[in-house]
Specification:
Layout: E1 4-6, E2 12-15, H1 21-35, E3 64-70, E4 73-81, E5 92-99, H2 108-119, E6 123-128, H3 133-146, E7 149-152, E8 158-163
Parallel strand pairs: 5-6
Antiparallel strand pairs: 1-2, 2-3, 3-4, 4-5, 6-8, 7-8
Length: 168
């Protein structure tokens, strides 16, 4: 598989390599701060949020991080693994996903999801908090576009499962 995919919209997904790890770590701080509105994420004594799984995205083949670019501009990122939120097997799970605030509402998020689907064939899952209304609206659009099946999870989150592009 290629590690860069261009969609029909001006968004491409590019795997985050080790030499860009620090950039991802910095962006995770902003993302995790934003997610504290919906989840109890503790702030460390050093003033940073911890995402204990992040190192694994550079060590385990089933976990990959991607940056999203519109033209030459970094507009977001995603962390993808094969963890199932529902207990049903899945090839790809969106663990974390964001398009930066300055780029929201322009179609970049849907284009980024499509870029990921083209890059990583197979089945997909994601989960979201209904309290995150903008995020919930995005994931409902994804569910509608790709025939997603919704499932309520303990704690109030919603999982969406959908089929991606069949493996070649």
């Amino acid at each position: 598989m290629d590690d860069i995919v261009q969609t029909e919209l001006p968004v491409r997904a590019e795997e985050v390599r080790e030499d860009r790890r620090e950039t991802l770590e910095n962006l995770m701080q902003k993302y995790l701060y934003e997610m504290t509105r919906y989840y109890p994420i503790p702030l460390g004594e050093d003033g940073n949020y911890r995402y204990k799984y992040l190192p694994l995205y550079f060590q385990q083949p089933a976990r990959q991080a991607y940056f999203f670019y519109a033209g030459g501009t970094l507009v977001g990122f995603a962390l993808i693994n094969d963890y199932s939120f529902t207990g049903e097997p899945t090839d790809n799970s969106i663990a974390e996903f964001t398009v930066f605030p300055a780029f929201r509402g322009r179609g970049y998020a849907l284009a980024a999801v499509e870029a990921l689907r083209r890059l990583r064939p197979g089945s997909w899952q994601l989960k979201y908090s209904p309290a995150n209304r903008p995020g919930a609206a995005l994931w409902e659009k994804v569910a509608a576009r790709y025939g997603g099946v919704r499932q309520a999870l303990p704690g109030g989150d919603v999982a969406v499962s959908f089929e991606g592009i069949a493996p070649a």
